Amino acid sequence: MELKDSSENVGRVGHETIGAEYLRSMGFSESVCRLVGSHVAAKRFLTAIDKSYYDSLSSASKKSLEFQGGPFEGEELDAFLRDPLRDQMVAMRRWDDAAKVEGIIDETPRAETYLGMIQRHLERSED
């Protein structure tokens, strides 16, 4: 289900789970799938601990945050803090945020640039 207000696309509900499950079905390692699946959790974490991060979000991202459960609190926050992949999850989220720049597609390597890396990862994941 795609959510929209009168002027902005605020994302696809569950997109992080869809991405993680797709990669899992393709044979990617559990850590890679968890990192992709943590996309929303990392945003919820960062907005819970850093008001300036929340302030930096677009209005669409703030709106989607509402649908995603808002900033972490209580046990959700504690669980994220204890997660051994926490730092990598936060780094992935920050990379994602940094890629939301008008025209960046022209400067971004295409997927085939990473084909060798992907193949090596999938070969290791089969072991």
From TrEMBL:
> Source organism's superkingdom?
Eukaryota
InterPro entries found in the cross-reference section: OP_Dioxygenase
| Gene3D superfamilies the record matches | Hypothetical protein af1432
The name of this protein is: HD domain protein
